[in-house]
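Tip: read the tokens left to right.
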């Protein structure tokens, strides 16, 4: 038995444009940050695709401030957004005049990055079954609002801000 790989594109299947949510991404330490990856409405390709992601430090570092993660998000037919959930860490506290103040090291806002890479069309099982050139995949960014080809290997860096948690005991 032999197997063949398709080397030509199926019928015209469109272009894929991927972006992240437009609102700022921030979280209070100890809570979960959510980065939403979106199939942009100008996409003419509506089929399944994957986008790779990883986290990288800014002035926030792993594992002290957030739990490092890498992976892929999968969009099935007709799905227009998928969330990447990122755990942030909370520890610390001080006591002033007998009052417990839970403040994690009195830090300023800290930043780390969620990085998007390698957007690519797939079949419904998440496998690439046709040449990558069949569906041009683009990332939309502030620097490239009309899109930058995923095949050019850009890394889309999304800043995630961690704000200090401030709590006091009930008086």
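Filled-in amino acids:
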């Amino acid at each position: 038995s032999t197997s063949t790989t398709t080397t030509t594109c199926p019928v015209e299947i469109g272009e894929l444009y991927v972006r992240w949510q437009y609102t700022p991404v921030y979280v209070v330490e100890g809570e979960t940050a959510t980065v939403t990856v979106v199939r942009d409405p100008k996409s003419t390709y509506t089929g399944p695709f994957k986008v790779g992601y990883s986290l990288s430090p800014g002035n926030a570092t792993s594992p002290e401030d957030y739990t490092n993660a890498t992976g892929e998000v999968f969009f099935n037919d007709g799905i227009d957004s998928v969330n990447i959930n990122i755990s942030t860490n909370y520890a610390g506290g001080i006591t002033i005049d007998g009052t417990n103040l839970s403040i994690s090291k009195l830090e300023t806002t800290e930043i780390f990055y969620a990085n998007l890479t390698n957007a690519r069309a797939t079949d419904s099982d998440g496998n690439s079954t046709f040449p990558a050139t069949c569906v041009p995949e683009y990332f939309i960014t502030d620097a490239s609002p009309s899109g930058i080809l995923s095949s050019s290997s850009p890394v889309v860096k999304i800043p995630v801000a961690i704000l200090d948690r401030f709590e006091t005991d009930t008086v």
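The chain is about 0% helix and 45% strand. The mean pLDDT is 81.
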